[in-house]
Amino acid sequence: MAKKPASAAKSKPKAKKPATKKPPKKASSEKPAVKARKWDSATLLVLPGLVLVIVGEVAARVSPAWVPWLAPAGYVYALAYPLLAVGTVWRLTSFRWLKSLGPLAVLLLTWPSFSHVFSVGLSKPDVAVSENSFEVTTFNVRRLDEFEWLDGDQTREDIATWLAEQPDGIWCFQEFPKRGKATLRSAGFSWLKPRRRLFTWPREAGPALASSYPVKDWTTYMFEDEDAGQGRVLQADVETPAGLVRVFNVHLQSLHFDHADYNAVEEGPSREQGARLWGLITDASKARALQAQELVRRMEESPYPVIVAGDFNDTPMSYAMHALRGSRAEDTFAAASFGPGGTHLGAIPGLRIDGILADTTLQCVSHRTHGVVLSDHRPVTSVLQAKK
Questions:
Q1: Is 211 helix (H, G, I), strand (E, B) or coil?
Q2: Burial status of residue 343 (CB atoms within 10 A of its CB: 0-12, 13-18, 19 or more)
Q3: Residue 220: is its pLDDT beyond 80?
Q4: How many CB atoms lie under 10 A from the CB of residue 85?
Q5: Residue 17 resides in a domain
Q6: Residue 238 belongs to a domain with what CATH number?
Q7: pLDDT tier at 194, thresholds 50, 70, 90
Q8: Could you tell me which of 224, 290, 218 has the C-alpha nearest to residue 253?
Q9: Count of domains forming the chain
Q10: How many CA atoms lie within 13 A of 169 on its CB side?
């Protein structure tokens, strides 16, 4: 039998199937998931506002004599709270409810503090002025413009005219010059009609008190602590329609800024100027803290209701002012109308460093910051009466 050729014995190779091209994937219409951001735009407002508000609350309760770097926090509290409020509202309107809870809680808890900085007019008492009411005015007259920072003789005449228009009451002056009584008389002011007695700091410019009510006793003194700086107090017991009260007319430690320092604040300080400003602010804050502590002690020792009026040279959210409010007196600014009630006409607008604190047994019917420009401070007047 004939053999098949070897090539025939082998099986024929299978035909390869043509490679089929896979159709290209269609582009998905779905966008890739975006990871949720940990930070939103409102954080740029909330975070610094939150930090500054908390630091400000701590600064009002911790003496700058212990932690000096906390002292300047009171100056920025008026900006920090609105910053936090705007950021929180931004989050709420963006429906970020959970992220809004913490800042919102801080705003609510610190609202009583901010009400000392900015009045919305909601705390004004709805009471009538009684027969036992009386007025207290505080006014830093800046030496009656004897160095002609404003208009010299014209300024003194304007001050005399303004004082003559004020009703009877208690006037607390700061930086009242040695010959201030004669100066105002020469400018046209009468001390006799109605009769007002004037009590002044001895031998030089300082606090002075004028009263149309009988003054039973009075004294002047500087603070006892050797580190308490140059603050001054004129203390008087005055028989008012509401009874005998003890008035503390105070001028607490100044920053002692010179013209170069004020220019540095307005134009932006250099490193050296910044260090100097920092030192002046912290040193003055330490002194005012010690002065406030002594004032609190004297207030608590008073057998009569107390009134503290003057140029405090400190913000409402400072340790010194918090200490004075924490004693037996309340800030009459609670009865103010809408606004910050700024009293100092300087580089920082709306800065309130002058004011009146009244005993808790007295009620403030009204609080007014006058709009006149007769000094670098605006006068402040409160109407007080005994609580029923």
A1: strand
A2: buried
A3: yes
A4: 19
A5: no
A6: 3.60.10.10
A7: confident
A8: 290
A9: 2
A10: 20
Band of pLDDT at residue 19, cut at 50, 70 and 90: low
* Whether residue 85 sits in one domain with residue 196: no
Cβ atoms 287, 47 nearer than 8 A: no
**Length of the chain as a residue count:** 388
**Quick one: tokens of 326?**
């924490």
Which residue type does 130 have?
S
- The sign one gets for the Cα dihedral 112, 116, 120, 126 is positive
Q: What whole-number percentage of the chain has pLDDT above 90?
A: 68
Helix (H) or strand (E) holding 137: strand 134-140
- Cβ–Cβ < 8 Å for 129, 377: no
Among the listed residues 296, 294, 293, 289, the one whose alpha carbon sits nearest the alpha carbon of residue 319: 289
H or E element, residue 208: strand 206-211
Over residues 363-373, the mean pLDDT reads: 95
**Which amino acid is present at 191?**
W
Least confident of 80-89, 176-185, 264-273: 264-273
142 and 182, same domain (yes or no): yes
For residue 222, which amino acid is it? Answer: M
How far is CA 7 from each of CA 3, 4, 12, 14, 311, rounded to the nearest angstrom?
11, 8, 9, 15, 121
Position 18 in a domain: no
Number of Cβ within a 10 Å radius of residue 328: 18
Compute how many other C-beta atoms are within 10 angstroms of the C-beta atom of residue 103. 23
Cα–Cα distances (Å) from 60 to 113, 250, 288, 290, 307, in that order, read 10, 20, 12, 14, 21
Residue-number span of the structural domain to which 346 is assigned: 134-386
DSSP annotation of 123 reads S
Domain identity same for 288 and 353 = yes
Judge whether 379 and 352 are in contact, CB under 8 Å. Answer: no
**What does the DSSP assignment read for 2-22?**
PPPPHHHHSPPPPPPPPPPPP
What type of residue is 49?
A: G
